[in-house]
Amino acid sequence: MRIYAANVVLPSGVLPAVVEISDGKIVSIDSGAGVDANSADLRIETGYLSAGLIDLQINGAYGTDFIAANTSDWERILRKLPESGVTAIYPTVITAPVLDLVNWFKSNRSQVKTYSDRTAVLGFHLEGPFLSMKRKGAHRAECVIAPTDEAIESLISAAQDSLKIMTIAPELENATSAIKKLVAHGVKVSVGHSDATADQVASAGDLGATLITHLFNAQSPVSHRDTGVAGQALIDERFTLGLIVDLHHVVSQSVLLAFKAAQSRVCLVTDAISALGMPAGEYELAGESVTVKAGQPPVRSDGTLAGSTIRLDHAISNCIKIGVSPGIAIAAATKVPASAMGLSDRGTIEIGNRADLVWLNYSNEVLEAERTWIAGNEVFVK
């Protein structure tokens, strides 16, 4: 199959191109002003042809929290996520008793799979329970603890290589040992829900931490006395910065600040909860009630933000609306997360990569998925 698009997001820029797919992979790319659009089986004149979107932080969707998902829930969610152009995810579970998390990993580690007909699960993201009480956000206070070697080892053992990201506050007692153990087992350490100083964040980077969980949210802010988590994240090129662009968690000026300071390191995430793709109402996040009102982010009963309901394609659209260039905004949901996680077979439209693709097109001034392909198979048509 050959797809022509007037705007293909390539590593070299946004160009007209014909992308040829065979046996689930990209086998050739003809790009530039003289490309022969008539040679294609499908012509796309509007919007953008992009690599499939990758979400490093998603708690649930379509009425189900991943921490409570059964087999049919997993299948339903993974078959629906291509509707937003998402072709790979790192399902996220948040703070709970360590034993509950150990049991969850034992029950769900088999869900880590790559498919040819639905969104891939590339591993899990554990956000907590080793967080700052001061910066816990919507996490359950009674379950927030400092890391112990025993707890870290039990989680790693239960996950059996399915644990790929862990959010941790590096200023906690024994966090240094925890970060070393996680890095040694191939887990990407993300600094988040943290009241750390800039020096403590830098030290976490020295130990091998490479990610920042939802930049600006639930972390020590920039000040003239100490740049905190947010400031160190912006200036320290070792870190990839997760960013929720629903324009509720982070205002547009701060989104632009992040892109101006760290353009190639901003990674769009949804932090979506079970209310993603659902009407306003009452939902759950880690077993506790969350309220969603139309046009507003989810909140706990005390008004604390509790995840989002933003689609990843709509997050890209929000970035473009406030002035981020389309190529950079799209890369923040494709190339950047793939690079951050060491994925060599996806995230960019390049010869040899998986043919996980999405046509992002405008509908009522919102850029969103029009068609999605996984391993060359068309799995969604709007």
UniProtKB/TrEMBL annotation:
One of its GO terms (biological process) is N-acetylglucosamine catabolic process. Residues 49-377 form the Amidohydrolase-related domain. The keyword NAD does not apply. Pfam families: Amidohydro_1. The keyword Metal-binding applies. Signal peptide: none annotated. One of its GO terms (molecular function) is metal ion binding. Keywords: Carbohydrate metabolism, Hydrolase, Metal-binding. Gene3D superfamilies: Metal-dependent hydrolases, Urease, subunit C, domain 1. NCBIfam families: nagA. Belongs to the metallo-dependent hydrolases superfamily. NagA family. This is Unannotated protein. It comes from freshwater metagenome. The lineage of its organism: unclassified sequences, metagenomes, ecological metagenomes.
